[in-house]
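Recap slide: RING-type E3 ubiquitin transferase, sequence and predicted structure.
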Amino acid sequence: MIHTQTGSSRRILTFPAVNPCESISITTLLDSLLQISGEILSFKPKHFSTNKRTVKETLRHIQNLVILLEEIRVGSIPTARYFPRAAILSFSELHVIFQKLKFLLEDCTREGAKLYMLINSDQVSAHFRVLTRSISTCLDTFPVGSVDLSGEVNELINLLIRQTRNSDARPGPDDKRVIDSVYWIFNLFENRINPNSDEILRVLNHIGVRKWRDCVKEIDFIGEEITSAEKKKDKNGIELLSSLMAFICYCRCVILRGIDEEDDVEREEEKDLIVWGLNVDDLRCPISLEIMNDPVVLETGHTYDRSSITKWFSSGNITCPKTGKSLATTVLVDNFSVKQVIQSYCKQNGVEIDQKRKNKKNKSIVPESLAAAEAGKLVAEFLAGELIDGGEEEMVKALVEIRVLTKTSSFNRSCLVEAGVVESLMKILRSGDPTIQENAMAGILNLSKDIAGKSRIVGDGGGLEVIVEVLNEGIRRESRQYAAAAIFYLSSLGDYSRLIGEIPDAIPGLVRIVRGCDYGDSAKRNALIAIRSLLIQQSDNHWRVLAAGAVPVLLDLVKSDGISDGVTADSMAILAKMAEYPDGMISVLRRGGLKLTVKILGSPEVSSATKQHCVVLLHNLCLNGGNDVVGALAKDSSIMGSLYTVLSNGDCGSGKKASALIKLIHEFQEKKTGTAEPVFERGRFVHAW
C-alpha cells in the first residue's frame, strides 16, 4: 500500500502529496486509488462552510471514477509488466490528485477553521478548479486503445473528461452573501455599534458554528494563523485575522453564551498562569515586546525592560510610554518579583538568556485592526452590564467569559477594567455560591495584572481585605489558590505590599496553604511566590513571615517526599531572604537549616536554580552567624565540592556568593581548627550544629 501524509501536522491549504514509486504494480496502485477514493467519499455527510455545490460535484466525479477503477481492477488486467506504462503514469498522477483533494476536503471540514475557510472561499474554489481539471488531463492521457476495456467504461472515461475539463468551481451565492455580512459586521464594530443578533446567527448557521465550544475552537485556530502571519510579517493578513478573531469572540461572549455541560471551563486552563503568576505575554516589555531581561518599575507602577526604557529616556522622552504621564523622576526600581518569575519561566521552558531576546510576541497587546479593538470594548461593556443587571444564570455565564478573556491578552483586561468589571467582581467575591466565587476570584487574579486593575482592586484598602478573606475562607481550594496568586500580583507594588502585610490574616493564610496537605504543588507555589514578593517589596514583612511560623513549615516542606523541584527552589529562596535578618538566621539554624541546606546543595537531583538559592542561604547564614557558622560549615567534607560545582556553572550572582563562601571557609581553616560544634542554649546562639 502507498503511504501518504496525514493532514494533522500540515498547514491549512497546503497539499504535501506523495508520488507513487516508479516500480509500483498496477494492482497495488489501483488498490490504493480505491482506498483513497473511499476516504474522499466519506466526507459526503460532513458539513462544509463554503463551496457546498462545488464539493457535491467533486464527490460525484470521484464516485464515477470509483466505478471506472473497479471495472479495470476486476477486469482482465494483464500482469504489471504487460500493462501499458502510460496507463500507470496516468493513474500515478491521479493518485497525487486524489491525495490533494483529500487534504482540501479535510481543510473544508476542519474543526475550528470554518470561518477562515469561508473568508477564503475564492482560494478554495481555485484549488477545486485546478484539481478537477487535472483529473481531465490524467484521463485524457490514459491509453484507452492499449487496454482491454468495455464500451461502457470507454464512454464513462469520455464523460468524465468532458465534465472535469469544463469544471468552473466558484463560491456559491450563499457564500458571497454571508461573506458580505461578515465584512458589514466588521464595519459596525469599527463604529462601535452592536450588530443585529439575527444577522450574526445567519453567519454562524451557514458555517456550522452552533455552540460555545465551537467558538473556542475557531478562536484557537485563528490564533495559530495570527502567529504564522506575524512570522511572515503579513500585515494585511494579521489585520483580517484580528477582525475574524474579534467577530468569533463577540459571538462566543454575546450570542452563544450558553456553555455546554461537557464544556465546563477546565480549571487546568489556569495551571500555567498560576504556577508562574504571569502569562508569557505579561513577561514582555511594553516597548520592545520581548521577554524582559532586567525588569524595572517607573513611578507610574508600569514595568519595562531596563535597556528599553533607558533608550526611551535617552531619546528625550520623560514620560511613561504606556500612560503618557510626565514623570517627576526617572529613577528605575528593580522589579524583583517579575524578574523571579521570568527566570523561573525560562528555566522551566529551557529558554536561554540569548534566546529570550529573539522571541517575538505571540499575542498582540493591542489588536491589529480597528474592528477588533472596538469589538473588544463592546464585549467588555456587555459583560459588565450582565454582572449588574443580569440574573444568576447570566452572571455565571458572564463570569466564565471574563475569566477566559482576562487570560488571553492585556488588551482584554484593560477593556474590562475600563468597563467597570473590577468593582462588580469585588462585590461578588463574598458570594456563597462556590462556582460564582471561584470564577470571580479567577477574574480578579487576571485583572490584577493590569496596573489600573490593581488600583481598582485595592481601592481604599478594603479590596485587599476581601481577597485575604477568600484566601483564608474561600469555599473551594481553587478560590483560595487564586487569591494567593492575586496577592503576588498586587504585592509587586511596594505600597500594596505594605498594606497586605498589615492585614493580620494575610501572611498566615499564605503559610497555611504552603503547609496544607490537600494543596498541590501549583497552589503551594502560588503562596510561596506571594510570600517571597512580600519579603522583597517590604522589609517590614520579614518579622510577620517569621511570626507566622514560615521557617519550620518551609524546612519541613523541603524535607518531605514527592514535592517538585520548583517548590524546593521557592522555599529555599524565602529561607535565604529570611536569613538576611538576625532573627531569621537564628530561626533557620535552630531548626537544622544549615545541615539540610548543605544536603540539598550536594544533591544531583535538584536544579541549578535550587542550588543557587542554597548558596545564597548559606552565605547569609555565614554573614550573620559569623565564625561559628563558618566553622560548622567547614566541617562538612562535601561542601567545597558542591560550591566549586556551582562556581563552575557560570551563573554570575550565585558564582560570586559561592566564591565568597569558599574564601570564608579557607580563611577560617587557616586561622583555627578543631572548634567545638555550636549549639543553642536558652535561645542564645552558642554554635551552629
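Residues 173-258+367-400 form one domain.
Residues 85-108 form the longest helix (24 residues).
(End of recap.)
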